[in-house]
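F.,

This is the one I mentioned.
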């Protein structure tokens, strides 16, 4: 595990973007696992800026997103399809046919989960998986549980997750109660994982995830087993970590 701590959001976002962009430069046919939410926005802004300076191309890249809400139209402003178009896809030269997200409106959700896993398998191992961290330790939408599912699956979102995501909707009642998510097994198979966390409200769960026991009660704790985990934190998110240089 390589943990880096930054004084500003801009420096953190730039560091994460440099890792992603550097991979695409050195491996033009890279397979990327992408995340959504508030944390990656600055990262994608920096990636777009680098792309517009002609530093690299996404023409041969393939991307797989971690998750999508169930039952939310793809053109809804809070769908992850819309998020990715707004923050990244509409601003780079990634062919639409090479950008994959799970279909939360599929008529057969179980079949959609199988289809998504097959697409990932066919693309080969994910080279870089970008992750954020939920307040309860979830990664993707893999919520704390007695056992975690390896492949793509439907999940009932925890109340804490619903509350956290309510800021993106008009009210808590509008937040979808289910999502499709890439499984922990798929996430852990990535060659490299980049975990990005910001804010003092995440400090306790950062400590549990990175220095606590490995347990399905904190899905992110399983990242401790990964051979190539890079953790990028702002100083507030890192404040409870022991044994980490500032």
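My design for it:
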């Amino acid at each position: 595990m390589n943990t880096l701590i930054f004084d500003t959001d801009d420096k953190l976002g730039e560091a994460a973007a440099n890792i992603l962009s550097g991979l695409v430069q050195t491996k033009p046919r890279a397979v990327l696992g992408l995340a959504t939410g508030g944390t990656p926005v600055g990262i994608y802004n920096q990636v777009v800026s680098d792309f517009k300076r002609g530093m690299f191309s996404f023409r041969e890249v393939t991307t797989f997103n971690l998750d999508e809400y169930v039952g939310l139209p793809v053109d809804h402003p809070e769908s992850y399809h819309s998020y990715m178009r707004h923050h990244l896809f509409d601003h780079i030269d990634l062919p639409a046919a090479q950008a994959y997200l799970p279909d939360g409106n599929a008529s057969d959700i179980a079949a959609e989960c199988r289809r998504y896993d097959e697409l990932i398998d066919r693309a080969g191992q994910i080279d870089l998986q970008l992750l954020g961290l939920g307040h309860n330790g979830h990664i993707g939408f893999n919520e704390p549980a007695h056992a975690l599912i390896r492949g793509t699956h439907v999940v009932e979102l925890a109340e804490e997750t619903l509350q956290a995501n309510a800021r993106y909707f008009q009210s808590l009642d509008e937040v979808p109660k289910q999502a499709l998510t890439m499984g922990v097994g798929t996430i852990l198979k990535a060659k490299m994982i980049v975990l990005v966390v910001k804010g003092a409200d995440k400090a306790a769960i950062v400590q549990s995830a990175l220095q606590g026991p490995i347990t399905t009660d904190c899905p992110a704790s399983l990242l401790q087993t990964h051979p190539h985990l890079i953790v990028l934190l702002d100083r507030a998110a890192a404040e409870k970590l022991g044994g980490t240089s500032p």
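The chain has one domain: 2-234.

Talk soon.
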